[in-house]
Amino acid sequence: MPDFSHEALHHPGLVAGVDEAGRGPLAGPVVAAAVILRAHDCPDGLNDSKQLSAKKRAMLEGEIKARALCWGVGIATVEEIDEINILWATMLAMTRAVEALGPDVAHILVDGNRCPNWRWASTAIVEGDAKCLSIAAASILAKEERDRMMIAAAADYPGYGWETNKGYGSAKHMAALREHGPTPLHRRSFAPVAQLTLL
């Protein structure tokens, strides 16, 4: 289970955890979140969002937002993903999430193997959402925010199954893509979508 050992390495000062959701889907934005937790008032059960049930994630999202020192969300649009590619769009969403925090941070812990080119001191932690409580909290906020966006988008573009697949390339999603073609929310720089636009 994640703990506060990584945050403790970088005290004194405010330490934020950052994670993203939505790098792999064929449709929708990429969403990042940044969280500064209070060590003495941390919700129980924080973990990598992929290891939690939808019910548990939703409950923890509310607790994180209520009890964290601060939190922020950043989004990179489909247009930005197609223009600068998914890696740099992810870095852009992370930067926007940190900028949305409010107070400045002394250090940022980033899930993954690289950090954005930004003005803050930071450390990349592979599988950080399973090791670091702040990153785990950020992973929950990012996934919950993006899931809501894709469920809402499913009402505008029915048939692709986004209410369940959240834009990932499930069998239902791929079948709808072949039948109806891409929507404005599809990432045309992603190979499965690009191939269909050439047909």
UniProtKB/TrEMBL annotation:
It is found in: Cytoplasm. Its cofactor is Mn(2+); Mg(2+). Its EC number is 3.1.26.4. Keywords: Cytoplasm, Endonuclease, Hydrolase, Manganese, Metal-binding, Nuclease. InterPro entries: RNase_HII, RNase_HII/HIII, RNase_HII/HIII_dom, RNaseH-like_sf, RNaseH_sf. Pfam families: RNase_HII. The keyword Manganese applies. A divalent metal cation binds at residues 19-20, 111. Belongs to the RNase HII family. It comes from Sphingobium rhizovicinum. It is an enzyme of class 3 (hydrolase). Manganese or magnesium. Binds 1 divalent metal ion per monomer in the absence of substrate. May bind a second metal ion after substrate binding. It comes from the Bacteria. Gene3D superfamilies: Ribonuclease H-like superfamily/Ribonuclease H (3.30.420.10). GO terms for molecular function: RNA-DNA hybrid ribonuclease activity. Endonuclease that specifically degrades the RNA of RNA-DNA hybrids. The gene is rnhB. This is Ribonuclease HII. PROSITE patterns: RNASE_H_2. Residues 13-199 form the RNase H type-2 domain. It catalyses: Endonucleolytic cleavage to 5'-phosphomonoester.
